User: Fold these one by one.
Assistant:
Number 1:
Amino acid sequence: MDETPIATRPPSSDEKLLQAKFIESIAAQSEQMDKLGRQLITLELAIPGLYATALKLTAGEKAIVGLTPAFYITFGCWLLALLLTLISLIPRKWTVDSGIMKQDPKVKTETLGIEDFFNASAQYKRRLLIAASLFFFVGVVSAALSVL
């Protein structure tokens, strides 16, 4: 075995800045998901209103939407998307050990390290928002197909 010491140097100011920005990006993931959730709620509330307005404008006073399967799919998907988005914004309780930076993946425990908390929180919200987006898209496609 080679006993020669490995040469090291302290990190430069650029490297320290990059490390700090990396840590900030991990901590900001959950906040970014919250911003996305707020934007989705705006869309999820506006699009059904625009849909109803467009139907009213194109059909006039006789605008009646039949209670067809497409109607139920459209508004059911939009409602489900809104609920999933709202759930993503509701704070969730996590068990975090502030003395651990990153939990050993071999250890099966519900207690998270600090870095694990930020990643798990963002992943939880991301999954809900992706599902909400998919349901919302299905609702938009169903609404478009229902008027054809």
Number 2:
Amino acid sequence: MSNSSCSVSSINDLLLHANQNHLNITTTVGSCPGICSLAWGNGNPDLSGIGANISYIFQAVLTVICGPLLCLVYELRDRWNFDERTEKHIALLHNAFLDISAQFSIPVAIAAVIRLHQNAPFYELAFLRSLTTMQFLSLLSTFVTVGLFDEPHRRHRQRIFIIVLYGSLEFGFYMGVVGFLVTNKSSWVLIREFSEACKAYSQIFPWIKYIPSPKKINLPHITAKEYFNPFSKKGWKFSLIIFGFVIAGILGLILATLIVVFLFPFLYYALRGKEGARWLVIPMSLAFTIGMLEQLVRMEKTRATMKGITGADFQDNQWGFGQVIAVFLWMPLCIQFAYYILREFSLSPSIYSLLLTLS
């Protein structure tokens, strides 16, 4: 085996070298076992460090609280006799979490796109895929519930524009991450062979997909005479193919119309708090929250697997200035939660009514 095969600096260089020189991946790994650790890396404290990881867990927990749970409490405010001040505090907490979550998730998605274009190793690909999906679902879980809160400023067009801007930016950069993880057929085959050769790391096989091109449909060659001949098999076959294309086009147009006519107005009415859309909001938020928790579990499993493999070389458990800042990102909101709860316990009889009802 040539030294050039063992001196590659990234997994992309290895795949490119293997493609150009028709190398056998299994043989290459056997001759250069260090390539496996190079391909999966030792962690990246900037995005998957211990402080950042704790911050992601905080975000997920607060999403559960400020998403479906807080909305359910708010919808039952009349039954539990909440006063106007309590309702205002609940709305302010939801509003604050949405802003912090969006302003945290969007930079993470931007950093993920940048990192993926820097030949990130497989561990980071797997971790960033779960991370960006988790944060995107977290934002959606809170985004769809905005219209439930009856604060006047929440129904203002400027506020709706800001929320839509949050969602658009997060969706755009998340699609950038997903798009990067789609590869061509030759690279996909090499990556599968590589993962099989590096058995110790196979549990965190990255979310890279090969999407084959749609099959080419060859229309039969037919003359005008054959087409208009009612007894010609070629003419009938050609007519049925054209008829199928027309029906598919009509169905696609109907689907697009339904999306434009019903889905977009529904989202708008949900943000505006219209009664017709309110009953679907909490189940939607709960569904997004469940998906977010599933991605969080997947992310933590990936991190735990990598930690077990790399041992003392695992870089993501090293504390630094950025890790401390990441943890303290949610402290102001947690303090605000504590302040409002303590204030309600000391001043509002509605909390006692709620506790008596639950008991």
Number 3:
Amino acid sequence: MLSNEEITAVINRQRNQSEMTNTVFEFATYSSTIITSVILLLDEYPDVRCSSQALTFLLSRLAIHQDKALAWAELATPNQLQERMAKLPGFAFLFLTIYPNDSAESFMARDAFWQAMLGS
């Protein structure tokens, strides 16, 4: 579990204390490992078929899952993932923990998280 301070730091993208960074990294690793395990146990479809599945596969620790999600995203409309993520703030938060850098995923997650929280 993350403390209130760590959750706030993740949301505000201000993780610069080493102890906090390690705890958030451990949370992200644990969460993505669980997601990967569930995908494998459920024997999910080999190809991504919808935005929810794409979001889940992007959080997997296996490159094959991530590649399939990216292939789906290339064919989707530009905002399709963010629109879905905005309805799933837990996914947005996980993306913020797993993608802490200035990547497209991180910015998409930040915008989707605030959209979900503000209800816009």
Number 4:
Amino acid sequence: MARAVIDRLIINSPYEEPERHWRYARETRTFDLAEGRRPAGYVVASGDSKAFDDPGIFVEIPLVNQIRPRVRAWREAGYPGVTGITERLLEHWLDPEEFESRRFFFCQLEAIETLIWLVEAPAAERVGIEIPGDGGDFLRQCCKMATGSGKTIVMAMAIAWHILNKVAAPQDARFSRHVLVIAPGLTVKSRLAVLEPAGAGNYFEAFNIVPSALLDKLRQGKVLIRNWHALDWDSEEQIRKRRSVDKRGAKSDDAVAAWVKNDHLGFEVLYVYRGVVRKYRPDFLVRLAKGDMLVLETKGHDTEQDRVKRRYLDEWAQAVNTRGGFGRWRWAVAHHPGEIRDILMQGQEAGAGG
């Protein structure tokens, strides 16, 4: 029966595949309890609507909905094709005797199973599944999980799966004993220290992710955790230490009076993307020697949302400069580390706004 409000949010066990879901009818803005699992997808704002009660439009993700039943059938068949190490890990994660001390959520197990399926399942299992790439040098696959569902635990599972398989079979190119974890911010980086196998309070021991007999083998691997900006750009070093000299003999350091990473500073620009008001936090604030303020963003790959952000940043800079009293503000984006020096030396010529 359709209803305007939901009286029970939790209708499934977190340890089993969902059997029911609340189905939403956007035309009537009502809910009804439907059998089966909710299809994977996301909701976008309706056109240019800015209303907070906008029902939105559901957009299905066909690839996820195509993969889910394949992984389920593979699971029910006993994970054919996996290595001995992978089989041992899966048995350990699913062992009922461990449930009293720790039991993984269904979404966590399905996430790691899907990653394993993509790598180890027989090719026949994946016929008709085409995962588009971004054209880069590395194969990158996204495992999207909701906030609070235990993504870090899944990361620990994936790390153990890779390292232990590589230690057991060094020639197997599908695995690696060296794992690079890229964090989106310094705060997140500190929280991910639990992914270091030899670190105090690591998740591998705290959540019994690896059988005790395999812990020493796990520690033969190396987990490197780096902040995204430091890894891709080394921007702090580019700005603080770079001593490159341009053709006029001027040093880029001479162009900078002071700089700060925009972390917990509260500097943000509001923008609207797909009908939703969001917050944009640029990477760095730089005070140039000549007195101008430079908002510096480092970005390896542009998206439509990035371009919308910068349009609002440009409007913000123009408004501040027109208002006066806050100095002269510019903005720039470096798509490659080598561009930073030129931006610092010639900010007004390198995509600066305002």
